[in-house]
Amino acid sequence: MSIKMVQLLALASLAAAFAGCAAHKESVASESQDLASSGDESAQSEADLGSLGQSFVASGNGSIGLASFGASGGVPGDLTAEDFPANPGGAVFRPAGCVVGKNDLAAKTVTYSFHGCTGPWGLVHINGDVAVSYESTDPTNLTLTYSSSNLRLNRTSITSWKATAVITANGDDRDMQWNGSVTGTLGSGRAFERTNEKDFKWTVGKPCLSIDGKSDGNITGRNLETTITSYQRCADSCPAAGSDITIKNVDNGHQIELRYTGGPHAEFTAVDGSKVELTLACGL
What we know:
19% helix; 17 strands; alpha+beta; 15-stranded antiparallel beta sheet
């Protein structure tokens, strides 16, 4: 083999190595972007469901109950109407009359029908039915069980939702231990199927809802685990600045961290450790 041929082969090998390195970097960047965007969108949709669930809790004078929408006192035992307009627990839904609740006293279940509602915590475009069963042993605790098979919430279409919330009151402070599962399609068209174990905290009369916990399950076929170390929803649909989550691809162990910086913006630490700016689904 001639010296020239050897040189050409060496150059070809070097070019292939550079191409492989570039392809690897591109692959890592692409995976990081996908983990960030799909994980963020799913986390926000799951937070939307928890926020909606919280809105059914009526609070006052250190006690809690299922919002009664005009029944005396706002606690489950006071629900007497068969049909009534809804205005859950100080969480106003607009326009007026966009949601109606039908109470089944024997089953201790209220079915709420939403028609184009805008609600608290940045919730918009709420359509569909949610059945909420309630149980309470004293004024400072409440257990709610939710189910829906036709709910549209913000940009997410939900085909199956089941959850249980155990809510306790301590003065004006509220704690909601949440376990749930949800299946549907995100606004981007991604199919998702998730389970959640979370803790929601809020204070009566204050605008923010704090969330921590974990969720896992499939998003467009990827098994993703989301860990919420700090997440806060206020009046805006986007997470408050300082909120922080990690998203892990369980199949290959790759993980990114997503830190929200306020409004529809976040910074994430990619799989390779680099930091990239991201525009959030809540800003779309």
